[in-house]
Design goal:
With 477 residues, this protein is mostly helical. The chain is 77% helix and 2% strand. The protein has 19 helices and two strands. The protein has helices at residues 4-14, 18-76, 79-86, 93-108, 112-120, 129-148, 151-172, 194-206, 213-216, 230-246, 249-264, 268-303, 308-318, 320-342, 347-372, 376-393, 395-412, 418-446, 465-476; strands spanning 189-192, 224-228. The chain has a two-stranded antiparallel ribbon. Helix 16 packs across helix 18 (418-446). It is flat. The two termini are 62 Å apart.
Length: 477
């Protein structure tokens, strides 16, 4: 037995450990099974992911388009809203000046004034005819400014818009009705302002200028104001007619698509973030298209013989509600995107959440200390140093806030002029300068002495008092 035992032990040692090999095989098999299941799950969810992406893209496109649809339905086809939209034009100085000029030119286009002045003067005084006519022209122009700036004309303007609203909708939708005969030329949106011209003649009569009485009887088509030319109507009536016929279909479909996209997605937070970003980009695209369309609209008006500044005033006034709605859509989409991002696991999102919670707790503790009133005089200097430390730590963030606010003014400020842009830049520069002065004060305040521990055991310089205490106790032990 003694001769065989070593041999048996050697044979046992030369054989591989079957138990360890079985253990490794058994541990690798579940891992492989898990990977296979994950791959099958991904392949099984692929149609769902693709469907969610398609719905996100469609909803991101249709939501801003639905804003356009709602504006067309509520503003253009609604009589009260249409009158409210058009009302500022009668109070616009550019429109008032243009109407006064055109009304004065219409009165003097018949040469009635020149003929009467010529007949009233002797032949030897004929060289005085032109200067007298020019003086009368200037006088009548000032009267016209008074008439078109009066509240009476504003009420007349609103009344004419209310009565012609049905015809405006018919023109924009491409319908041919007898109501279009009220317009100066068929196929355009225009207002017959001859009653205002008659008011101007009455105003001149009240001031002793009775030269225009013969014109009053034939001035039924003497003055009109074109809102949209025939060329512009033919270009946009098809789209407008489609929107009006669709009514609330586009808004409802866009809302349903957005809900389905989020509900069908595997990662709803990311899907909501993508949807919000897409809506924001589409809203920006539409705002850019409106800016480009403004130049095209003015160019077409100028080429048709209309006043360019009046065309610009019409564009800005009529579309102001649409642009405001698109800006609100952009703002809401950006806020939703920020909220979805902050709810995620991104490093900066987590830091912002933790910092916000810590800040809220700190404010609560400070409020509790102030309300308790204990040790207020003793804590005054430490509070100042903590505030100074907070300013230094968040200096870059405060600068970014100023730049973001200035950018929001640029985006939502409407048609900004050069002076407005200059004011925004100056205000931003003043803010950054004041912030720099505050930072200099904060450096002196925080460096004036030892800083008391702040919220969470932090000091004004960002070090933790607990960590220092731990090191001290560790060495002592």
């Amino acid at each position: 037995m003694s001769n065989t035992e070593p041999q048996m032990q050697a044979d046992d040692a030369s054989k591989p450990d079957s138990g360890s090999e079985g253990t490794s095989e058994s541990s690798s098999k579940p891992a492989e099974i898990t990977d296979i299941k994950k791959a099958k799950t991904r392949r099984g969810h692929l149609p769902r992911r693709i469907s969610a992406w398609v719905l996100v893209v469609l909803a991101a496109i249709l939501i801003p388009v639905s804003v356009l649809s709602v504006w067309a339905i509520n503003t253009v086809t609604n009589t009260d809203k249409y009158v409210e939209t058009m009302a500022p034009l009668a109070r616009n100085p550019v429109i008032v000046n243009s109407l006064a000029t055109r009304a004065t030119d219409a009165l003097f286009s018949t040469h009635v004034v020149q003929n009467k002045v010529t007949q009233a003067l002797p032949k030897s005084a004929k060289p005085l005819v032109a200067p007298i006519v020019n003086e009368v022209h200037s006088y009548v122009y000032n009267l016209a400014l008074k008439v078109f700036s009066s509240p009476k004309f504003g009420k007349l303007w609103d009344l004419l818009n209310r009565h012609s609203h049905a015809a405006v909708v018919n023109v924009l939708t491409g319908k041919q009705t007898p109501l279009q005969k009220k317009f100066e030329k068929g196929g355009q949106v225009a207002l017959n302002l001859s009653p205002a011209l008659n008011n101007l003649i009455d105003e001149a009569n009240s001031h002793g200028v009775t030269l225009f009485n013969p014109i009053k009887a034939v001035s039924t088509q003497g003055l009109s104001f074109t809102v949209v030319s025939k060329q512009q109507v033919s270009k946009y009536s098809g789209l407008f007619n489609l929107v009006v016929k669709g009514k609330w279909i586009v808004p409802v479909i866009s809302l349903v698509l957005a809900i389905l996209a989020v509900a069908l997605a595997m990662e709803r937070r990311k899907t909501l973030l993508r949807l919000a970003v897409g809506v924001a980009l589409m809203a920006l695209l539409l705002l850019g298209a409106l800016s480009a369309g403004r130049g095209i609209f003015i160019g077409q008006a100028a080429s048709g013989g209309f006043h360019a500044q009046s065309a610009a005033a019409v564009w800005d006034t009529v579309l102001r509600f649409l642009k405001a709605d698109l800006r609100w859509t952009l703002l809401i989409a950006v806020l939703v995107a920020i909220g979805a991002w902050l709810a995620g696991p991104a490093r900066y999102a987590v830091w912002i959440r933790k910092t916000t919670v810590a800040g809220v707790r700190w404010v609560g503790r400070q409020w509790h200390e102030l309300s308790a009133g204990a040790g207020r005089a003793a804590a005054e200097s430490s509070r100042v140093r903590r505030s100074a430390g907070w300013i230094l730590e968040h200096l870059n963030g405060l600068r970014i806030v100023g730049v973001v606010v200035a950018a929001l003014f640029l985006v939502f400020g409407g048609n900004l002029t050069g002076w407005t842009l200059l004011i925004i830049v100056i205000v931003l520069a003043v803010y950054l300068g004041i912030l720099q002065l505050v930072a200099a004060w904060a450096r002196k305040a925080s460096g004036g002495g030892p800083v008391e521990p702040g919220p969470g055991g932090t000091t004004g310089t960002g070090t933790t008092a607990d960590a220092d205490a731990g090191v001290t106790s560790g060495t002592a032990s």
